[in-house]
Amino acid sequence: MGGGRVKIKRKASMVVLSAALMLGGSIALAPTASAVGSSACQFNSPDVNFKVSTSGARFRTGPGKRYRAIGTLYRGDSFRYFCRTRGFEKSWSYGKILKRTTTGIHAGTRGWVYSKYLD
């Protein structure tokens, strides 16, 4: 009786995965933070604290819109900057959240934010 449930769950998982892949696979195959981390950095910096200068900035698992959003940052949220992808214009900054954000991202969470949103 229990074996039938396992088979049904396995089939359901395969249906969901197949549907995600047919729809482009962007959700099922989004890059993770551990796959990118600071390895995409081109410019390192001494640790510097910034405040987010806008409302609605996406905090992501990698440097770009193709990476999954961890959450949203709002004006005044604290971010410690470690490095960025290139010059400050049109770059992505890697760092960590200093204290729990307005939207509930925990302190210490590492990720990427578009550099122009940091003040």
Tell me what the structure shows.
The protein has two helices and six strands. With 119 residues, it is of the alpha+beta class. The strands form two sheets. The chain has a four-stranded antiparallel beta sheet, with no helix packed on it. It has a two-stranded antiparallel ribbon with strand order 2-3. Strand 2 (57-60) and strand 3 form a beta hairpin. The protein is globular and about 30 Å long. The N and C termini lie far apart (60 Å). 22% of the residues are buried. Mean pLDDT is 78; it is low at 12-35.
Spatial separation of the terminal alpha carbons: 60 Å
- The helix/strand order is HHEEEEEE
Low-confidence stretches: 12-35
Cα Rg: 18 Å
Q: Count the strands?
A: 6
Shape: globular
Overall mean confidence score, pLDDT = 78
The largest beta-sheet arranges its strands as 1-4-5-6
How many separate helices?
A: 2
Report the portion of residues in β strands: 25-35%
Task: Estimate percent helicity.
Answer: 10-25%
By helix and strand content, what is the structural category? Answer: alpha+beta
Largest sheet: 4 strands, antiparallel
Protein name: SH3b domain-containing protein
Domain SH3b: 55-119
Organism: Streptomyces javensis
InterPro entries: SH3-like_bac-type
